[in-house]
Design a protein that fits this description.
single chain; 670 residues; five-stranded antiparallel sheet
C-alpha cells in the first residue's frame, strides 16, 4: 500500500506554522513545556546547516559564509570564513587528517583546521571553476573515502567525479555505460537521466551507491568507473534513500511505500523486505549500528529497528497518540546506541485516500529525546525538551542561530548525555560492523559422506603415484649417462639383467650344494668364484645408483676374493646366495705322515661372522704381547691352526701323503 505523507505545517521546519526556527532556552515551571519564539532573534539569527559530529566529539555546521566548530556544550570552538555561501542542505564531511570538505555555491571547499591562527589560509577551493571558466551545474552530493584516498562529487547532468586528495581527477562516470554495442543504465530515457543522490560509500566493500532519475540504483567500485550491478526500483518509486550497512548489506528506503529493503552488496539481490509506519518524505534516512541493526523513525511515533535478518523491534512499546518521529536518528560514540527525537504535537490526524495515507499535524508541544540500544532493546535515557538540557544550552553561542530538532539531536548525541556505553574509535566501530558480513559458502555436493571419503583417498593415492612418477622421470632425464637413450630400451636392459642374475643365483646355489656334499675339484671351486664375481657385477648394474648413472665404485665395495696356494694349502673364498662369506681350505700333509692311497676325512666347521671377528681380535692381542721371533707364520698356517675342527677318528695316511680334514668356514658378510 502506498503512503503519501503530507505535513500541512511541516513539523518544525517552516517558520510560518512552527516555532522551532528560533528557540529561547527557558524552562517555564508554571506552564507546560513549549517552544517559544523571540521576535528580535528571529530577524537576526542565522540558520545552521545539517550538522556533522566529528571524530573529536565536536559538532561542525556552516551558516552563510562561515564554518563553525562547536563544543558539545554549544560554545563556538573556532570559525573559518569561506568567502562563499555554504549549502545548508548538505552537511560537511570528514576528510584526511582532520580536514573537512563542504559545498559552497558551485564549489567544494577544503578546510584545514591546523592552519587556523597561522599565515596559511585555512580554507581553499578543492573543486570549482577557475576565473573565466564556465560555471558548472549544481553540486548534488559530496562524499570522501579514506580507503581509496578519493573525494567523490556528483554534479547534476554531468555525472560523478572522483578526485584524489591532491586535487587530481582520477575518473568520471555517467549514468549510462556503453560497452560492446549495449548501454547500461537509464533505460531508454538517456537524454534527461542523471544521478540524483549523494554518493553513498560502503567502507567495508569499497563500493559507491547512486540513484538516478529513472528509479535505478547503481553499485560502482570506488577505484574505477565500472558498474558492478544495477537494480531497478521504478516499480516501487523513483525516489528512495540509500543507506550503507557496512555489514555485507545495503539498505533502500522507499518513503512513499513505507518499505525498507535489504540488498546483497555483491549481487544487488533483495534479501528481505519489511514494512514500517508512514515515513516523512524528507529526513527519513535510517542509521545502521555496529550490530547490523537498521533503525528508522516513523510518523506514527515509533522507531522501527530491523536485525540483519529482518526481525523487527519497535521503540517505545507505548507512545503518545499525537507524537511523530520526523528526523533521522543518530549513532552514539560507541556505535551500538541510537539517539532519537520524538515530537509531541497538539493534534494529529491521518486518513487514507486510495493507496496513500495523509497525515496532518498541528504545532508541536515538546520533544522527547531518547537513547537506546536496538540489539538489546535497552532504553538508557529519556528526557523532554525544554528541560535540563535546554537550561544548559541557554547561555551558549547557540542562541545566535536558528535551531531545529536535527541540530538539537546532534548536540545531545555529541554530549553523550545518558550514555553508559564506552566510546570507541572509528576503526573499531568499522571492524565490528564489517565482521557482521558472513562469507558465502558454495555447496558443491551433499551426497554420501563415505563415498566422498573413498573418492578423496583414491584421488590422494593417484596424486602420490603421479608425484613419484614425475620425480623418477625428472631424475632419470637429468643424468648425463642416460641422455640420448630411449626409456624403453633402458627398461628392457634392466629386465635382461634381472633374468641373468636369477640364472647366476640358481647355478651358484647348485654348485655350493655340490661342494658341501662331496670333495670338489679345483675347477669347480674356481668356477664358483668366477660366477660370484659376475653376479656381483650384475647386482651393481641393477642398483639404483647405476641405473641413474652413478655407477662409480664406492669404498664399501667388497674386495675380490681369489684362490690362494702355497704348495701345502689351498683356500677358496666366495659369497653365498644369502650373502654369507664361504672359505674352503684344502691342506696336503707331508709324505712322512701316513699312507699314499687312503681317503681323507672331511670336516666342515660353521662360524658366524661375529665369532670369527672376536676370535681374530683375541688372536691379534695375544700375538702383540708375545716376543718377536725370527720366524713368522703364514696365513695358511694360522688358518689351519685356528680353524681346524676336532675329528673323532684319525685320518688315514699313505706312504706319500695324507689329506687333512676339509674345513669350510661360513659367516655373515659385513
Amino acid at each position: 500500500m502506498r503512503f503519501q505523507i503530507v505535513l500541512l505545517f511541516h513539523l518544525l521546519l517552516q517558520s510560518a506554522s512552527t516555532v522551532s526556527l528560533s528557540v529561547q532556552f527557558q524552562n517555564n515551571s508554571v506552564n507546560p513545556p513549549s517552544f517559544s519564539v523571540q521576535g528580535k532573534a528571529r530577524k537576526t539569527a542565522s540558520r545552521l546547516s545539517s550538522p556533522l559530529i566529528g571524530y573529536d566529539g565536536r559538532v561542525y555546521a556552516c551558516s552563510e559564509t562561515n564554518l563553525f566548530a562547536f563544543e558539545s556544550n554549544g560554545s563556538v570552538f573556532w570559525t573559518v570564513p569561506l568567502n562563499y555561501t555554504c549549502n545548508v542542505g548538505l552537511p560537511p564531511i570528514h576528510g584526511e587528517r582532520g580536514k573537512i570538505y563542504l559545498v559552497a555555491e558551485d564549489k567544494v571547499i577544503k578546510v584545514n583546521p591546523s592552519n587556523i591562527g597561522t599565515n596559511e589560509s585555512a580554507a581553499e577551493i578543492f573543486f570549482g571553476p577557475e576565473p573565466g571558466q564556465e560555471v558548472p551545474n549544481e553540486i548534488i552530493g559530496l562524499s570522501a573515502s579514506m580507503s581509496s584516498l578519493s573525494v567523490f562529487i556528483n554534479v547534476k547532468h554531468r555525472g560523478l567525479f572522483a578526485y584524489g586528495l591532491d586535487g587530481q581527477l582520477r575518473w568520471t562516470a555517467g549514468p549510462v555505460l556503453h560497452q560492446f554495442g549495449y548501454h547500461q543504465g537509464c533505460k531508454q530515457n538517456v537524454r534527461d537521466c542523471y544521478f540524483t543522490s549523494i554518493p553513498v560509500i560502503d567502507r567495508c566493500e569499497a563500493n559507491i551507491y547512486m540513484s538516478n532519475t529513472e528509479g535505478e540504483m547503481y553499485a560502482l567500485s570506488a577505484r574505477s568507473p565500472q558498474f558492478k550491478w544495477i537494480q531497478d526500483f521504478s516499480s516501487l518509486d523513483k525516489v528512495f534513500t540509500i543507506t550503507p550497512g557496512n555489514n555485507g548489506r545495503v539498505y533502500v528506503t522507499v518513503p512513499v511505500r513505507a518499505i525498507v529493503l535489504a540488498l546483497d552488496v555483491t549481487t544487488g539481490n533483495i534479501l528481505w523486505q519489511m514494512n514500517t509506519g508512514p515515513l516523512s518524505t524528507t529526513g527519513c534516512a535510517p542509521v545502521v549500528d555496529s550490530n547490523g541493526w537498521i533503525s528508522i523513525g516513523s510518523l506514527d511515533g515509533h522507531l522501527y529497528s530491523f536485525s540483519p535478518t529482518g526481525s523487527l523491534k519497535k521503540f517505545p512499546r507505548a507512545t503518545e497518540l499525537n507524537s511523530v518521529v520526523q528526523v533521522s536518528p543518530l549513532l552514539d560514540c560507541s556505535g551500538y546506541g541510537v539517539y532519537i527525537s520524538q515530537t509531541e504535537m497538539e493534534g494529529k490526524t491521518s486518513h487514507i485516500v486510495g493507496e496513500y495515507t495523509y497525515i496532518s499535524a498541528l504545532k508541536p508541544r515538546n520533544a522527547v529525546f531518547t537513547m537506546l540500544a536496538p540489539s538489546t532493546g535497552s532504553i538508557y535515557w529519556s528526557e523532554s525538551y525544554p528541560g535540563k538540557f535546554s537550561s544548559l544550552l541557554s547561555g551558549t553561542d547557540l542562541h545566535n542561530f536558528v535551531l531545529d530538532e536535527s541540530v538539537l539531536l546532534a548536540f545531545i548525541t555529541a554530549s553523550k548525555i545518558g550514555n553508559p556505553l564506552p566510546c570507541r574509535t572509528t576503526y573499531h566501530k568499522l571492524a565490528a560492523s564489517c565482521s557482521e558480513a558472513r562469507p558465502k559458502f558454495l555447496s558443491i555436493y551433499t551426497g554420501d559422506e563415505r563415498a566422498i571419503l573413498l573418492f578423496l583417498l583414491f584421488e590422494s593415492a593417484v596424486l602420490v603415484l603421479l608425484a613419484a612418477l614425475v620425480r623418477f622421470c625428472c631424475i632419470f632425464w637429468s643424468k648425463k649417462k642416460l641422455h640420448g637413450q630411449d626409456l624403453g630400451k633402458f627398461l628392457e636392459k634392466r629386465h635382461s639383467l634381472r633374468l641373468q642374475k636369477k640364472a647366476f643365483d640358481r647355478t651358484i646355489t647348485e654348485l655350493e650344494k655340490k661342494a658341501s656334499e662331496e670333495a670338489s675339484t679345483n675347477a669347480v671351486l674356481e668356477k664358483i668364484g668366477d660366477l660370484v664375481q659376475e653376479r656381483e657385477g650384475l647386482q651393481r648394474k641393477l642398483s639404483t645408483t647405476y641405473s641413474l648413472g652413478r655407477d662409480a665404485l664406492t669404498g664399501l665395495q667388497r674386495k675380490t676374493l681369489l684362490p690362494l696356494y702355497d704348495g701345502k694349502t689351498r683356500s677358496y673364498s666366495f659369497q653365498g646366495a644369502r650373502k654369507e662369506s664361504v672359505t674352503i681350505f684344502h691342506t696336503v700333509s707331508d709324505a712322512s705322515s701316513g699312507g699314499s692311497d687312503s681317503d681323507s676325512d672331511t670336516e666342515i666347521s660353521w662360524h658366524s661372522f661375529e665369532e670369527k671377528e672376536s676370535a681374530a681380535k683375541a688372536k691379534a692381542k695375544a700375538k702383540a704381547k708375545a716376543p718377536i721371533t725370527d720366524g713368522s707364520f703364514s696365513d695358511d698356517e694360522i688358518s689351519e691352526e685356528d680353524y681346524q675342527g676336532s675329528s673323532s677318528e684319525p685320518a688315514a695316511s699313505s706312504s706319500r701323503s695324507s689329506m687333512s680334514p676339509l674345513h669350510m668356514l661360513r659367516g655373515e658378510s659385513a
